[in-house]
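The records we work with from here on pair a chain with its fold. These numbers are not coordinates but entries in a learned vocabulary of local backbone shapes. To see the layout at work, look at the sequence and tokens printed below.

. . .
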Amino acid sequence: MAVYATLQDLIDRFGNDAVLVASDRDRDGQMDTDVVDKALLDADAEIDTYVGQQYKLPLPKVPRILTKLAVDIAFHVLSPEADTATEHRRSRYDNAIALLRRIAKGEVSLGIQEQSPVSIKPQITSRTRRWGRDRRLT
């Protein structure tokens, strides 16, 4: 599994104070990096489920858009329910998932030239029919 975003990416996008408030589960005033790491891993796994529909994983290079999506997903996961900015974070999360769905369908490209999309098509084979209206078991 690729690492799409880091703690520093979260801090760069939302600020140290916002990440601290979102991750401080025991209310000791310290950032709980284990909680942040778990949220980032959850975001990576969620992204892989969509990106893996069109691209072979792990990706050779992480596109910047996936870092942005990972940060938005992880921050939504971190956000306490009572937070007043929850609607804004939910909107960012919903937009991230909508874009990931479009990537999974092949409507949007990640711009990765080195790797071709995975084309797995089911193939069904069977024996000739032994039973049917016009046939009897012999």
Observations:
- The longest helix spans residues 86-105.
